[in-house]
Amino acid sequence: MMIDFIVDTDKRIIDLELLISAHLLGFVYRFVSDCMLQYMEGTSGKTDSLESTEGRILEDESLDRFSSLPDNILNSILSYLPTKEAVRTSVLSNRWKYMWTGILVLDFDENCFCGKGENSRKREKMVGIVNRVLKLHFGHVERFKLVFYPGKFKSHISRCLQFLQTSGVQELDLDFRGESQEAYAGYGWYELPSCIYDLGSLLVLNLKNCTMGVPLEFKGLKSLKTLCLSDVYISGEQLSILVSKCEVLQNLTVHCCKDIENIKILGPHTQLQSLKIDGCCVTLGELEIDAPNLLSFDFTGWVSGSPMLNVPRLLKATITQSSKNSLDGQNEKWYLEMAMNLSKLVHVESLSLLGFFVKFLAKGEAIDQVPTNFLNLKKLALKVNMTKVSEVTTIARFLGCCHHLEEIVFWLDQHHPELTWQFWDAQVPPYCVVDYLKTVVIKNFSGLEDEEAFVRFLLMCAKELKKITVSCYESMRTERRMQTALEKLAKVERASQNVEMVIDFDSNQDLNGDKYLYDDSTDGLSEYDYGYDYDYDDDDHDYDYDAFEIEDYFSDQDMILNLFLH
Fold first, then answer.
1. Closest CA to 84 of 58, 114, 118
2. What number of H helices and E strands is found in the chain?
């Protein structure tokens, strides 16, 4: 009987196979682990065959029922297990012996195989395991993940990646961790082989800790929709070539990449919908984005020139200016240009101006250049010092430009406090605050009088306010200043009769307000993440078989199994 399950939150239909996989994953994982213990404790080591243990293990009726499932269902379930645990299921019965060889997901994580710290013998063993698993695997691979410290094994890694050329891999996740230590030891960063650029089946590519050199003959990854580069050595020119030839690319993340002085996403790139650039250079010389269908833009850093943005359909923008030292190093013209650049974002629905952005707007007459027509803006996040006159004036002016604002988030910055200035008591409330504002979040509240005055202003003026959350430092819970401020706020006469005020004492406050990302999507989990996170570690049993002392008559299958029994 076929059953469709409809999830109301995102209107997606989840097929029966994946649903069974997700719900039974916990049982399978525990069951496999228990059977492995039975196998190891009930045999005499290497001499007992798989067949001699099959009858004993099958005494458990749950396994018999589980084994009756079709192969495609079992393969899907095994794909949710770590590869190491999926191979271990081969001990269960003859039917299960080679079941794992068709799994859709291959996950080789050095942390799982070798533990923490450098261990040359375990790393050699892991290389042997990977080689044998790839030799026995058949069929296509949907997802391939490798987290490994290459060192002297770079040639093995290249052969491993060549396997992917015929596998039809759709999602590739490579993290060559520890490369900074390797470079110091003389091995250098791992440079991706040219075969990576020929994987035409790729939909998702995540790269970390490596060097990219796009070949001259590169024709593009025609199916690639998501590209994430983190701690990757790649020049701005090479990045532009790479992106321009990925014609259906929808999501691009460039995080802490080295050797990038300029970023230019040109074309126009009509398919790009999400772009995140984070900490790639102390100062970018140029930033040009030509993406007419871009919906989300997240930038952290500093641009010395004037950014050129063609993003007419942008809905969400997060701009974090990260260079405090450059505040006093720019002339008045630069601040004016930066404020005028906000005109390219007037159509957004969600805007976050974090880091030192408000401090820049508060310089000189920059605020006068800010557009006055943010007609679509519904969500706003700002970092501001409520005790600094220039910044308070700036945000008051900015609120007046947001006509239909429904949600605001403020990170309060208490640096350089000035004398108490009761600005908000005399301030005429903006139209959006009175008639539209519904949700307020105040972060890093410390009980200063000016902070209290701002919260009081919102409570007294916002007629449609539903909820206001005041987050405070846990360490200030018992301070008299904080208690006094909260007592005063509790007694304020509120314009909205339905407003709920929540006081949240949190020891993990975000001191910098460097990020506030609105996530309106309902598909936040990746395709392979259904909320399960299993990390099996059997501390009570130490199965110490030397992989290189196994008898020659063992097949590759038996050798891999014994390699995993540790």
1. 114
2. 18, 20
pLDDT at 505 over 50: yes
Q: Which amino acid is at 563?
A: L
Residue 292: which H helix or E strand, with range? none
HEC letters along 192-247:
CCHHHHHCCCCCEEEEEEEECCCCCCCCCCCCCCEEEEEEEECCHHHHHHHHHCCC
Q: How far apart are CA 443 and CA 455, in angstroms?
A: 12
Q: Check if the beta carbon of residue 52 is closer than 8 Å to that of residue 81.
A: no
pLDDT digits (tens, 9 = 90+) for 248-271: 999 999 998 888 888 999 878 899
pLDDT more than 90, % of the chain: 33
Here the tokens at position 340 are 């005028």
Helix (H, G, I), strand (E, B) or coil at 361: helix
Report which residue type is found at 127.
V
* Backbone dihedral region for residue 182 (phi beyond 0: left; psi -120 to 50: alpha; all else: beta): alpha
**Sign (positive or negative) of CA dihedral 15, 203, 174, 102:** positive
pLDDT of residue 8: 36
Q: Can you tell me the distance from the alpha carbon of 362 to that of 394, in angstroms, rounded to the nearest whole number? A: 6
Instruction: Write the DSSP symbol of residue 157.
Output: H
Q: What is the largest CA-CA distance in the chain?
A: 88
Rg (CA), the chain: 29
Angle at which helices 16-42 and 50-57 cross, to 10°:
110
Strand order in the sheet with 286-290: 262-265, 286-290, 308-310
The rounded distance, in Å, linking the Cα atoms of 443 and 473 is 9
Among candidates 202, 211, 312, which has minimal Cα distance to 257? 211
Phi, psi for 378 (deg, rounded to 5): -115, -25
Residue in the structure block whose two tokens are 């990302």: 517
Q: What is the pLDDT of residue 27?
A: 53
**SS3 (DSSP) at 143:** strand
Residue whose token pair is 């139209």: 431
CB 134 within 8 Å of CB 103: no
Look up residue 442 and give its DSSP letter: E
- Residue 81 to residue 94: CA distance in whole angstroms: 20
Which pairing describes strands 105-109 and 12-14: parallel, antiparallel, or unpaired?
Answer: unpaired
Cβ(145)–Cβ(107) below 8 Å: yes
Q: For residue 319, with 0-12 CB atoms within 10 Å meaning exposed, 13-18 middle and 19 or more buried, which class applies?
A: buried
The confidence band for 274, taking pLDDT boundaries of 50, 70 and 90, is very high
User: Which tokens hold the place of 315?
Assistant: 């809905």
Residue entry with tokens 């706003």 = 380
Q: How far apart are CA 371 and CA 429, in angstroms?
A: 19
CA 160 to chain centre: 26
With cut-offs at 50, 70 and 90, classify the pLDDT of residue 284.
confident
Task: Read off the pTM.
Answer: 0.77
